[in-house]
């Protein structure tokens, strides 16, 4: 985040017209695209949280509880990990909003690496908890995060 703030400040100072930081500026099309991505990402994430209810946690469950069930309805019918996809889209959107090209790429790469490892770890336990039912669900439902099936 510190890099993003530094990039924004440096580019605002060096290229004020590009960032719309000068007098009479205002948001350009790229910034509005960023706002749309932020809203879309937040909407996907929150819809996943509401749909999964108590099955949604911020900590990966390594032991199955009696109340834990596999959620495959609602948004989960179309997106296997809406919480992760939503956060991924949101975080890229923040950098698009700020017109930060270097941070946009950096955030996309760092977040992708984080989610690749986290999804592999979480799905290991989901397969242990739900077996073939999870395998079938995962086979038909993409993550929509690039290069993470």
CATH fold name, please? Four Helix Bundle (Hemerythrin (Met), subunit A)
Question: How many individual helices?
Answer: 6
CATH-level-2 architecture: Up-down Bundle
Shape label: elongated
CATH secondary-structure class: Mainly Alpha
Q: What are the segments in which pLDDT stays under 50 over at least 5 consecutive residues?
A: none
Which class best fits the helix and strand makeup?
mainly alpha
Mean pLDDT: 93
Biggest sheet details = none
State the total count of DSSP E strands: 0
What is the CA–CA distance across the termini?
Answer: 28 Å
- Along the chain, the helix and strand elements come as HHHHHH
* Beta-strand percent range: under 5%
In percent, how helical is the residue content? 55-70%
Over the alpha carbons, how many angstroms does the gyration radius reach?
A: 18 Å
Number of domains: 1
Describe this structure in words.
It is a multi-pass membrane protein. Its cofactor is Zn(2+). It is found in: Endoplasmic reticulum membrane; Membrane. Its EC number is 2.1.1.100. One of its GO terms (biological process) is methylation. The model has no long low-confidence stretch (mean pLDDT 93). It contains 6 helices and no strands. It is elongated and about 55 Å long. The two termini are 28 Å apart. The protein has one domain (27-140): Four Helix Bundle (Hemerythrin (Met), subunit A) (Up-down Bundle). Helix 3 runs antiparallel to helix 4, helix 4 (82-97) packs antiparallel against helix 5 (101-130) and helix 5 (101-130) runs antiparallel to helix 6 (132-140). The chain has helices spanning 2-14, 16-19, 29-52, 82-97, 101-130, 132-140. By secondary structure, it is mostly helical.
């Amino acid at each position: 985040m510190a890099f993003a703030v530094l990039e924004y400040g440096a580019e605002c100072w060096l290229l004020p017209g590009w960032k719309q930081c000068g007098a009479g500026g205002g948001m350009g099309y790229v910034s509005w695209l960023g706002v749309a991505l932020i809203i879309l990402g937040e909407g996907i994430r929150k819809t996943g949280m509401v749909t999964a209810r108590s099955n949604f946690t911020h900590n990966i469950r390594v032991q199955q509880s009696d109340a834990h069930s596999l959620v495959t309805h609602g948004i989960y019918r179309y997106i296997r990990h809406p919480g992760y996809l939503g956060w991924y889209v949101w975080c890229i959107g923040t950098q698009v909003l700020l017109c930060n090209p270097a941070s946009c790429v950096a955030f996309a790469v760092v977040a992708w690496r984080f989610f690749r490892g986290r999804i592999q770890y979480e799905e290991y336990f989901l397969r242990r908890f739900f077996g073939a039912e999870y395998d079938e669900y995962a086979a038909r439902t993409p993550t929509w995060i690039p290069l993470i099936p």
